[in-house]
Amino acid sequence: MPPLRQGVADLGFVAACKKLGYHPYPIPAAIASVDYQGRSACVYCGFCHGFPCHVGAKSSTHVTCIARGLATGNLEIRPFARVFRVNRDETGRRVVGVSYFDADGNVQEIEAPTVILAAYALENARLLLASEIDGGGQVGQNLMVHNRGWYTALLPEPTNPFMGPLVGASVIDDVASELVPDNDEGVLWGSPVTSWPGDTQPIEVAHNLPAGLPRWGKEYKDWLRQNYRRLYKTYSQTATFPSKRYYCDLDPKVKDKFGQPALRLTHDWADHDRKAVEFMMKIKRAIGQEMGVIQAWEDPPTPPYHVTTHDVGTHRMGLDPALSVVDPFGEAHCGYPGRPSRRTYLPTIRRRPLARGGCSIPSASAADHSIRRRTAFGGGVLVVSSHIRSLPARKTNRDAGSSCEAPGWRPGGEHRGPSRA
What we know:
By secondary structure, the protein is an alpha+beta fold. The protein has helices spanning 8-19, 61-64, 66-72, 120-130, 202-205, 218-227, 271-291, 361-377, and strands at residues 25-26, 77-78, 82-88, 95-101, 107-111, 114-118, 146-147, 151-154, 170-172, 193-196, 231-236, 238-239, 247-255, 261-266, 295-298, 344-345, 381-385, 403-405, 415-416. It is 20% helix and 19% strand. The strands form five sheets. It has a six-stranded antiparallel sheet with strand order 1-9-10-11-8-15, covered by helices on one side. Strands 2-18-17-6-16 form a five-stranded mixed sheet.
């Protein structure tokens, strides 16, 4: 299908990038731009990122996979479940299932020959550590966080940032990753530069205002009234390099309502992180100037946040179980050298988050590998996910934590306790 329709300001971004010698292209988006398989095309409502799609255009699991899976009779969803332990056999070398609190707070167990932890890099690490699976000391280590380096501007003409999805936009990869040009700053790894022309609600703008502007009162309201419809943003995504200095572990004091230890993050922005953000900011400034911005302000190169929606690391990949958590296909070693666990997977990202961007090649490869292994060994698959939207109208319990999906688990495992759909 064709790309999504561009936001107004993205047209200027594309023209400016081409004048500067870059090669912009439409952002790959998991959003239907035309009617597709009974789903509506995007209606460009402006309430996209962070929201379920009211017309089903976003390719999230509740419109692409879950309904079809339920129709086969081989998928069972247990919402409002809180997985608290990954269970192993008596040798401690093979994962056999999980234990969880059900919606009534009762402890339940479920067994399956294949267990997939798909609760995001952070919760996956917390769950493994709480299960005393530390991957030879590697679980939770080498936390990497994205620094977005926001560049926000006012343009002379209206941009209508309240319209359309944020991925109705373009991106340049000319200086991404290893393509970063040689530089005196010593920046070793570049980043895409991405346009953000729409899907910006007023409450978001209130948290990203130029320095010196009051945060309340008449001047504040007048500024929003005059400038909100002319706002535009670009950002990059430089990442922390993996380091033993940055990790997540279990908090020794803080616990949730189930008595489970909370996750504790240790992270800071290094000198290279600051230099990388400043290097990418020069490119964003040049693009903004070419677009004719009349005012611009920037995030600091070492921002106050230390967690994003793109956190990675925490499960080092490798062939040696003594030095890594998962193999190249995301299958866990479980930290026992010489005896890797059979069919326990930790995708590098969630199987499919509330969709807004493209698919991950590593995750697709891991999925293909797990399907081949299941075909060879038989039995069901147990998926532990951070959030399941089984039906668009179902009320979400945000305290539920990890939920269970058990597609076809009955032939390969024993279930203890009542079933909950």
